Structures are given as C-alpha cells and as structure tokens.
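Exercise 7b. Backbone tokens:
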C-alpha cells in the first residue's frame, strides 16, 4: 500500500472510531504506526468507561504477522501513582488462557462482580499491581482471548510465539516511546514459564546483535512450567507426601513420566496427542482442585468470559464483532510439540544478565514448590519472610536470582495473597529480592 493509501486508511479509521457509538471492526493500530500517526493511535485506543471505574488505559490490536494477518490484543494501564514506574508485561499460561483473566482475577486494577441476579459487572480492586507499576496485559498467543488470525495461523512453538511477541513490543514502544527510559519486566504464570523466557531471550539476542534498545531489566514467573519432564516427575511425589494419593497411584504416575521420558529420547513423542501427553505429565489421579489444594477453590473463569462478551465491554475495548474465549481448547491441542520443550537453557542465559524472580504458592497443586525446586536443584533453602508475627513466606537470593514461596497461596497466587505478592514485586524491583525479613530455618 502506498504512503497516501496508509494515511487515508488511518483517517477513515479515526473517523469511524471517533464518530460512531458502536465499533464496526477490531481496532488495528499497526496502520497508524506505519504512517507515523502516533497521536491518532493513542487517541483511538483510549478506553473510555462510562461508569468511571476503569482507570486511564489503552487497548487495541497490533499486527504481528502481516502475511498471515495475525493480531495480538492488549490492554495497557499506565501507573496511576508514578510517572516513572517500570513497565510490567503480564502473560497468563494455559496454554491459551487469556491474560485478561490475570487482569480481572489476579492483579489488575479492576475485578469482576457477580450480582445476586446472576449479572456480571466490575469494580476497582483495592490492591493492584497497576498502582506502583504500568501493567501491560497481552492475549498470547494469537488465537487466545481476543487475539486473532485472519488466516487461522496461530504460532504454537517457542520460536513462533516469541517472535510475534517481539514484533508486538517493538510496535508498542513506537506508541509509547517514553517507556524506553523505564525498566521493563516480563512475567506471568504457569505455561508462561515457556512464553516469558522465550520472549525475553528474543529481546536479549537482539540487544546483543545491536538491533534492539528495549530496556529489558528482568523477568518474573509464578508457578512456572519451564522444565517439563523434571517437574512432572515431582508432581505426584508432592501429593504422596501429603497423603492425598496411595503408593500404587504414585507408582502409576512415575511410570507415566518414565514412559514420557523414553518417548522423548527415542523421538516417538509425536505419536501421542496433546491430551494424552498432558494426562501422562499431570496425572488425573489427584483429587479435588489443584489450583489451591487446601481451599479446593476453582478460578472463576466464567465470570471473566461472560463480562468480556458483553457488547459494552467489546465497544469499550475496541474489539467489536470478535468472540472472546477465556481459554481456547482447540488451539491448546496444537501445542503438542511444545508441551515438553523446556526453557531452562534460555533461563540460564538470562540469569547471567537480568534479574529473575520465581515464585510459587505453598498451596499450589498444579506447579508445586517441590516441582520448581526439582528444576532448580541446587537452590539453597531458605530464609523466613515475616511482617511482625505474620509469616508471609520464604525466600532465597543468589546473585540476581530470587526465589520466593508465598504462604497460604495456590496457583493463582496474586489472587490468594494480594498484599504479599504486591510487596514481593515491589521489593524485587527495588532490591532484586526480599529485604524485609526475619532470619530462620
């Protein structure tokens, strides 16, 4: 398309978004950025909440594969407290769980409310990461949440989705160039143990090549799945130690993981479907909810999905005619070749240069603390983290690496312990790890 054509397209898009009460098509921001119309991109991507509940924010789509016409959706909240705040990227895992779930259920500035009549709305969250930090939530990979492909070309390998995330962040900095002067932290939870190190490694490689000035400072991972076979081997050991499963079920679980290991080493892993791989890696013999094995509390995925499907939300977020899914089951099964591929080697490279935080909840029954320890192996344990008489968790720091276990929290750690996780994040940014401690153990 010619320069004139791009400018005309931007003008037409701007007219539609500024003059219509209902949006017509998803807001694609890349044409504005290509034309250098940054002011227009910022204007049309503003989120306007008629209720006055949602703080200043921006949302829209950035094109990450022009040939396949792939578009990643984002919702960005500049810090409400500090104009110099670091930029924090949040990615949920799954794979294919929308990061809007993390926004509403875990650490964003708003959360869902289910009323007595069954209707869903939202309110401000009293403890939010979007106060001290500028929070950027991205539906990753394409095909997750509102992110979509016009050619059904979602990327389901580390090279694929990390490349699209890199192309996304390059364009994001065109829209918000002031963040070149702020620290960048990339993080998330669970399967983001794949997304985040792969994405950060993409940035790191380009920094070394001299082709990127993105100010990557560190990564943070909650309940991360980053060394599949080692972590899966510890999965049932944990439940056996709690007395939650029998010895025979423990042996069955170990056999599953052993067979997986053999299939990987012999190259026969491709003969299994995703569902069978997942069943073998995470035995279904474990009772109850694994998000928090003490409370048996299941995450409220439905309320997030119901809210994001309302016409008012779709208009406010410029997503228009798209259908929102908090999880994409069809796409998840395409991650078969990625499921057992680890990121520990990439993590080792990143540890030499950037701050790293790994945290888990001690009630997390999906990615348990022993699973993370097994992947780390040589981590020395541990120092008590207390505030007065209250135990907040445990931590250890080695160089730029920080490991924290949050007390009385499950897999959705920020939801279960909002104050402790926010305190942890602030201390990680300011000091590299926990500083408010009582020595022990």
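Sequence design result:
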């Amino acid at each position: 398309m010619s320069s004139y054509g791009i400018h005309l397209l931007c003008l037409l898009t701007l007219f539609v978004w500024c003059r219509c009460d209902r949006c017509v098509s998803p807001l694609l921001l890349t044409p504005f950025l290509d034309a250098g119309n940054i002011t227009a991109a910022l204007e049309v991507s503003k989120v306007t909440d008629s209720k006055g509940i949602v703080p200043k924010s921006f949302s829209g789509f950035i094109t990450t594969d022009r040939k396949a016409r792939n578009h990643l959706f984002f919702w960005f909240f500049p810090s409400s407290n500090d104009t110099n705040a670091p930029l924090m990227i949040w990615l949920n895992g799954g794979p294919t769980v929308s990061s809007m779930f993390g926004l509403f259920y875990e650490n964003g500035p708003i959360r869902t409310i289910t009323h007595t009549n069954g209707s869903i709305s939202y309110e401000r969250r009293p403890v939010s990461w979007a106060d001290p930090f500028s929070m950027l939530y991205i539906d990753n990979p394409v095909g997750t949440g509102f992110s979509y492909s016009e050619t059904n070309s979602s990327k389901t390998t580390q090279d694929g989705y990390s490349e699209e995330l890199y192309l996304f962040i390059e364009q994001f900095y065109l829209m918000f160039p002031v963040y070149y002067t702020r620290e960048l932290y990339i993080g998330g939870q669970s399967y983001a143990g794949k997304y985040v190190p792969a994405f950060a490694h993409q940035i790191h490689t380009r920094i070394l090549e001299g082709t990127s000035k993105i100010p990557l400072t560190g990564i943070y991972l909650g309940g991360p799945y980053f060394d599949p076979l080692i972590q899966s081997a510890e999965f049932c050991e944990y439940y056996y130690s709690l007395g939650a499963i029998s010895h025979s079920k423990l042996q069955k679980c170990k056999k599953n993981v052993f067979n997986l290991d053999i299939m990987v080493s012999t190259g026969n892993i491709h003969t299994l479907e995703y569902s069978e791989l997942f069943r073998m890696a995470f035995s279904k013999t474990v009772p109850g909810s694994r998000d928090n094995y003490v409370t048996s509390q299941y995450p409220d995925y439905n309320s997030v999905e119901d809210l994001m499907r309302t016409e008012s939300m779709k208009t406010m977020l410029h997503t228009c005619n798209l259908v929102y899914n908090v999880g994409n089951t069809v796409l998840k099964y395409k991650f078969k070749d990625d499921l057992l591929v680890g990121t520990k080697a990439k993590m080792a490279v990143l540890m030499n240069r950037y701050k790293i935080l790994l945290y888990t909840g001690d009630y997390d029954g999906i990615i348990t603390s022993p699973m993370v320890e097994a992947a780390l192996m040589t981590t020395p344990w541990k120092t008590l983290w207390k505030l007065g008489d209250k135990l907040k968790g445990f931590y250890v720091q080695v160089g730029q690496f920080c490991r924290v276990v949050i007390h009385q929290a499950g897999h959705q750690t920020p939801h279960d312990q909002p104050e402790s996780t926010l305190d942890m994040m602030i201390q990680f940014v300011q000091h590299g790890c926990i500083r408010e401690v009582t020595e022990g153990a």
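Instructor comment: The radius of gyration is 22 Å. Confidence is low (pLDDT under 50) at residues 15-20.
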